[in-house]
Amino acid sequence: MGADHARLLRDEVRGAYLAATCDPVRDCTHSDPLELIHAVDAVVIASPDATHAGLALACIAAGKPVLCEKPLGATSAEAWEVVQAETTLGRRLVQVGYMRRFDPAYLAMKACDIGPPALLHNIHRNAQAPDWFTGAMPITNSLVHEIDISRWMLDDEITEARVVGQDPMLVTMRTAKGVLISTEVFMNAAYGYHVHAELVGRRGTVAMAQPTRIVTNREGHHGHGYPMNWVPRFAEAYRAQMTAFVAGVASGVLPGATAWDGYAATAIAEQIIPGLASGLAQTISLPAKPSLYEA
Ligand code: ISE
Questions:
Q1: Which residue in 16, 33, 120, 177 is a FRET match for 215, CA 20 to 30 A apart?
Q2: How far apart are the CA of 138 and the centre of ligand 1, in A?
Q3: What ligand 1 atom has the least distance to the C-alpha of 185?
């Protein structure tokens, strides 16, 4: 993911200059991320989940705007530290890489006038779980996308969730305004990477376009129109997200998911996890949103 972001900055985003890269293993200009943070004007974090919050905190301490890959923290406690650091500073420096907010299909769906929302149906299939997936990562690393995009799409807060199954799993969530959200997360769908959504309003419905053919993996994984991972599916979203981040650095107002949104997604995911084993409905709650994040 880091290489993809670096390529966007180097080749595709006007106004950006890729000044330095850091990787402890690969050949880069830096091997110490803290040195890099001090050497540049703005930072993109695309390291393993467990390092996100610590690096975001270092960016805030250095006063550097940062686009941090999702999730903002491996735990909600880590993500909350980032929220608190920004709140203490009194300024937002963090954009969280929930790139679906920049995807043309989700944007078109949000723009549709179909009356008050009643239901949001999400499908999130991966061809194969990444080899670094452990434990509850289908929730903390994958479902967090639907948590974020549902909060954004519905402009509402999630208050309840229930999980059935493991892989695939079905997650039913309810919002404060009473909207129902169904999400399938299937980490080993074999035929390809497939993200889909349908928003049902009180006056109409809008669904993303998708291939209508029957999809099978019997004759191999390729040639049916689905990519094997999320990078091609969200290429446009990643490009738009990076372009918007660079413009936000220049204007001083970062777009997209805030540190609060990043915290909320991880805190909600964490509260859903006990339901994985019990199958029982979980009540979800968040602390009051700090005023820094009010629109
Ligand atoms: C991965 O980390 C992503 O962010 C992808 O968008 C998601 O679809 C995948 O499930 C995650 O593992």
A1: 120
A2: 9
A3: 10
